[in-house]
Amino acid sequence: MEWLIAAGLHPRANATTLVIARDLGARMDYDTGHALYCLYKIVARTGISRASVKRHIGYLRELGSLAWVQHGTRTNIRRALGLSGYAGTATIYAAVIPAAYDHALGHRIIGTGYEARAVADYRQMPETHAQATPTATVDNTSANPVDNSAKRSCEPPSLTSAPQKGQVQMVGV
């Protein structure tokens, strides 16, 4: 996120956007890459106003770093489960690494969109691997600069996918 904001890929993304991204990242399920939105809890934890949280979540989506998995609704999920009381369904986001980041740093990714990248949970690394890995930070300052001259659409991504047309046929093997 720091690179995306520093590269100026969104004119309004700033340090507040980064605080909100870190809050989502701290609560992300690293098995799926998903995080519950929980607007009021983000407001309580960060001290950022409700309107600003909503605005900066929009910036994260426009940057391509968040994709909607499920839109929250006011439907009472507790009634559907046979329980008393009220609880609406939650909005769920998925963390995404935008193609602009991979392109600028020369990464080659197989596939496109949300499904092209695997999620790794580095919090659960074995001791031997963690000790062998150097702890120095990565310096990306020598990477190619991002060309922001062309006007780009700020359409937020979603997890919709194109239907498959059929199976690949192997011939002569």
From TrEMBL:
It comes from the Bacteria. Residues 130-147, 158-167 have a biased composition (Polar residues). Residues 127-173 are annotated as: Disordered. This is Helix-turn-helix domain-containing protein. It comes from Streptomyces sanglieri.
